[in-house]
Amino acid sequence: MDRLPTLEEIETAAEVVYRHLPPTPQYAWPLLAEAYGCRVWVKHENHTPTGAFKVRGGVVYLERLRHRLPEVRGVATATRGNHGQSVAFAAAAQGLEARVYVPHGNAVEKNAAMRAFGARLVETGADFQEARETAMAEAERDGLHMLPSFHPDLVEGVATYPAELFRAVPDLDTVYVPVGLGSGLCATLAARDALSPGTEVVGVVSTEAQAYRLSFEAGRPVSTNSAATLLGDGMACRIPEPDAVSLINAGAARILAVEDAELAEAMRQLYSCTHNLAEGSGAAALAALGQERARQKGRRVAVMLTGGNVDAELFGRVLGREL
Where are the alpha helices (DSSP H) in 21-71? Predict the structure, then answer.
């Protein structure tokens, strides 16, 4: 993938997306404005059928795969949860088998949701990268289509959500976006370029998974040895996608790193100020805004609440300040 999607490509993907789910809302919450000193819109991708933004890319990719390879019988992929739910949801709509690989110790409730959507779950490896390597090998062995975590069809589908935001809220100064493997940030850059070119886009990673921040600073892909964040599992990448790095480095304003303690505080803020549930990665954008309160004072800002799929036990510990 050597370029960002055009507005025409995003709109074509939207025709597929809206057959499966409605647009999600974006609200300016007054308690967040009081807490952060600026007008804060939250884009609620926690309101999709899978509780996260990834489903938009999944339905586009698998519908196009069905047309491109009508003989395909099933797909395999690796995930920490939200991508896997997306694939299971979209595969069921296309009548395909979905085999989803997750690392040992993955979120219990995300695993349960993937099974409920129809996926066959395989737990393997110590982290996402090891699960992905097993998925690739077994997909080839068993004749399954290996569905990537970064692909133009995924980015075009995902880009429908920032396009909704930019159409609904013109003239935003800054948008904060969590970074896993890069589809969400690339999608936001594409929609920004098409609809709100004056808006700066800021990526957010975990301090325990800084591959994309290091790649941004180095101007080339930089891998890390671990990605061991407790709360930010959706950002737990240690080997970045080279195409995503190139597109992000060309279009993002900067990339910030947030600690698990900052994620926990942002999760609590989103719950107390909006009564919305955010997983750690879903709260990362607000955590990054917290680092830039002075910079954003009095401005118009949006944060992407990319998912709300957090285990009840873990969220209870966050609310009780027990971490």
Answer: 30-36, 55-68
